[in-house]
Amino acid sequence: MKILTVTGYKGGISKSTTAIHIATFFSDIGKTILVDSDPNRTALAWSSRGSLPFTVADERQAMKLISGNDFVVIDTPARPDSSDLKELAKGCDLLILPTIPDVVSLEPMLKTASDLGAANYRALLVIVPPSPSKEGAAIRSELIDNGIPVFKTMIRRAAGFQKAAFEGVPIRDVSSSKARVAWLDYLALGKEIMEVLGNG
Amino acid sequence: MKILTVTGYKGGISKSTTAIHIATFFSDIGKTILVDSDPNRTALAWSSRGSLPFTVADERQAMKLISGNDFVVIDTPARPDSSDLKELAKGCDLLILPTIPDVVSLEPMLKTASDLGAANYRALLVIVPPSPSKEGAAIRSELIDNGIPVFKTMIRRAAGFQKAAFEGVPIRDVSSSKARVAWLDYLALGKEIMEVLGNG
Question: Is B177 on the interface with A (CB under 8 A)?
Fold first, then answer.
């Protein structure tokens, strides 16, 4: 069983969306469960509006439900403190930290990374403005220059995520060419996560 | 795997002590883990001061550690609201609600029980004044008259629990005749829990 934990140093960084789409990717490979530990219960609500290709469990039932799964994706509360982050990292195979490519987000991300030290984590650029904007690549370089491990894949901003949330499905089930492009980003991310897990 | 969750409608009801001693009982029967979800981390601190005959896991590492255990005892935060209680009950095989035998505790316990409805739970009288006091039996009757399922076993008040906490061991490892008597209460409780699980 592989455990992937998605957490955020602040709100509004598309944490639950990220967790849902990582779980969607892994549900094609093995039995997958998403544990919703975020008091907002965004993933549970998403699931209840439509249908997701994996089980979404309330954290209070997680112990009962995770047995027999190949992949466990945990959506945590936002804004953990630094001791929380370390404990979260110890509790999973990979800690994934979505981050928005703006200068305001850079400072807390650097602080978070310094708290985490050599822990098993990767930053993930999300809500990245599409080309020709270079914001994503610029912030990614900045993070790397500061010694932070960052996924090569960046998740581009796409209106389809709103629609997917509304319909209660993953973005790959939203019928628009832009939504398909957004899903390609998650496919690439999923492959990159598998590489990291393989080397771990 | 059997999951036993200990929760309380208020603080100071010996919730962590109860969880630790239930886990001690089950550690003689099968591989047992106690998941400490209480922000006070009482069970983790108890364990760190000495040695307990089972693993105590920080809740943030629980998903990684529970696999392969026969018994999972969950020590929850105190004061869950009524929706929490129902979700907690759904997430376990038996929800255990320690309660103190005083009139002040009766009202919140009755409220809690009405929130729980027909869920899989049992109230447990703890910190019961020893004979000739009849307080424990009186409150137990009161709860039963109100339709609340209550363990036959009552855990008597014993100074040995303080010593056990200080030494970081279960009370059965504290050398005094009174401590041995206190452990007998937990032995009886453990047997009663096994009966309930068997019928469940």
Answer: no
In the block, residue with structure tokens 């009161």? B142
Please report the pLDDT score of residue A200 as a whole number: 47
Tell me the nearest-neighbour CA distance from B137 into chain A, angstroms: 33
Closest CB to B67: pick one of A58, A67, A91.
Answer: A67
- Reported ipTM: the value is 0.81
Q: What is the CATH number of the domain that holds A170?
A: 3.40.50.300
Strand, coil or helix: A38 = coil
Total structural domains in chain A? Answer: 1
d(CA B54, CA B31): 8
DSSP track, B57-109: EEGGGHHHH-TT-SEEEEEPPS---HHHHHHHHHTSSEEEEEE-SSHHHHHHH
The domain in which residue B137 lies consists of 2-199
Comparing alpha-carbon positions, the chain A residue that sits nearest to B67 is: A67
Q: Residue B98 phi/psi, 5° resolution?
A: -65, 145
Residue A195 CB contacts under 8 Å (≥ 6 apart), including other chains? none
> Tell me: the pLDDT tens digits for A14-60?
999 999 999 999 999 999 999 999 988 999 999 999 999 999 999 99
pTM for the whole structure: 0.89
- Angstrom distances, CA of residue A157 to CA of A23, A127, A134, A135: 19, 4, 13, 12
